[in-house]
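During data preparation, a discrete fold description was generated, and the record follows.
___
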Amino acid sequence: MEMRERVEKSIQKKFRHGLFVRFVQAVSDYELISPGDKIAVCISGGKDSMCMAKLFQELKRHNKIPFELEFMVMDPGYAPANRAAIENNAKMLGIPVRIFETNIFDAVYHIDQSPCYLCARMRRGHLYKYAQDLGCNKIALGHHYDDVIETVLMGMLYSGQFQCMMPKLHSTNFAGMELIRPMYYVRQEDIVAWRDYNDLHFLQCACRFTEETAQQGRENESKRVETRQLIAKLKETNPSVDANIFRSMENISMTQVLGCKIRSEKHSFLEWYDEGFSGFS
């Protein structure tokens, strides 16, 4: 059996519930795909985006919603071996990728403060631009369930804010473009299990900054790693911790918060304390 056939069969059968069913559920719940969409599936070369690409192909095979796909790979300055690994995996899995090049890694390499944040912003701008040039109206990113709850907790612990990684967003700089996250319900453990079951080998983050900090033994300084470890520790005594964090995003009581922002404008509970809550305009 060829690798592509094996991988696709594993999605259709063994990992159907953990991967495909949850993928479709997020698409449905958050109305991520509309008839006539042309979606740029953004592939970094890691397990999450590669899995997302295969799930999109499976959804397209069912053809219940008429939409088009483009599979994009942005090369921000990968080492030749990493570029080759992405190309080989895409070919093996039957993903017809379009590759375009940028110099993002060079641009952020000497940035001392938040190079990963700057890199992410620059990547997204290039992805929007290239997708728009291809006639797409949406870009799809491979952020999954664990990314979502880690982001919520990171915001509370390190930034003093409650802020969600939204399942879809309108672009503020590229008119008519949207970002969607169809892996919103998919657990990282299921992606890892799918990868290992099929003996697939994908890239980790391949930027120079990450590689060098890892070599120096400082990878655990990452706030996301700390948050992930905290959640894992809490789950030892409360297995529902991750689900409760996720549900908290849907159960915010505006009458029981000290303050909030509406379109960047701050509001205090004192505005409605004496007169009763009447909502915001």
In short: Strands lie at 38-43, 68-75, 97-101, 138-140, 168-170, 178-180, 259-262, 265-268.
